[in-house]
Amino acid sequence: MQNFEIGDKVTAFYKTGKYIGEVTGERPGAYVVRILAVLKHPRQGDLHNPADIAVPLFHERKALAHREQANMPEKMVKPYDGEIPDYNETLLTAFSDMKKQLETDGSPHALKSLEALAGVQREYELMYGLTFQS
């Protein structure tokens, strides 16, 4: 198991999203990571039934916010060596990549996910002043 110090730059997975961040603390079995960039946007829907749309609550899942801190399980944290890209740019790219993937899928889950992403997009536009390509 990798040991990280406060201030180390890392990548981390959290609820299907992948991020670049900085270790700010340690908890039993987890590191506290401050989010600096988004590498993979979280999937929409139920984490426990990933392709199912007939679930009690189909989650609309946003990426962790810039500088938000989250407890990341130790095994999901890896070292990162490189420049830290701009949060807003990485969020736009990760969101667009997910949206394109869903648009080519066409499954009921993909269609439901696209509906959820429309709401997420509106929130990003308000929160960060982002403009999305159509």
Automatic annotation (TrEMBL):
GO terms for molecular function: kinase activity. Signal peptide: none annotated. InterPro entries: KapB, KapB_sf. Gene3D superfamilies: Kinase associated protein B domain. Keywords: Kinase, Transferase. The keyword Transit peptide does not apply. The keyword Ribosomal protein does not apply. It holds the Pfam family KapB. This is Kinase. It comes from Rossellomorea aquimaris.
